[in-house]
Structures are given as structure tokens and as C-alpha cells.
Design a protein that fits this description.
Elements: E1 6-11, H1 14-26, E2 31-35, E3 46-50, H2 55-66
Antiparallel strand pairs: 1-3, 2-3
Length: about 70
């Protein structure tokens, strides 16, 4: 991964990160998910990244998503 993407969300639930990625996409924000969880025990984080120019919009959408 290059440095042109910014971390905007972290969860310990894969499905939650994927739903958020889809929600961001539906609202015009490109994003992707990186699963950093251990494959055997499923502990760790799942992270959502967006482009730096979309960070503010993504954070506002994430706030809406969480409520």
C-alpha cells in the first residue's frame, strides 16, 4: 500500500468494516478494507482507508453510520 490513503476507521468486526465501505461507496467516497486479524483466533483490527481528500467527508459519514 502506498502513502496516498488515510486510515479513517478501525473495528474488530469484518462485517462492520465491509458495510461501512459499502456505505462510503454509496456516498461517493472511495475506500478499501484491510483485515489485520489473526486468521486462527480472529483477534486484531479491520481497517478502512480512504484518499486524503475524502477524509473529512468520510469522517462525517462514519459519524452518521455509527448513529
Amino acid at each position: 500500500m502506498d502513502n496516498t490513503w488515510s486510515l479513517v476507521y478501525t473495528s474488530n468486526k469484518q462485517y462492520e468494516a465491509e458495510i461501512l465501505r459499502e456505505f462510503l461507496s454509496d456516498n461517493g467516497v472511495d475506500s478499501f478494507v484491510i483485515n489485520k486479524q489473526d486468521s486462527s483466533y480472529h483477534f486484531g483490527d479491520v481497517e478502512v482507508y480512504t484518499r486524503p481528500e475524502d477524509v473529512m467527508k468520510a469522517k462525517l459519514l462514519i459519524e452518521k453510520f455509527e448513529n
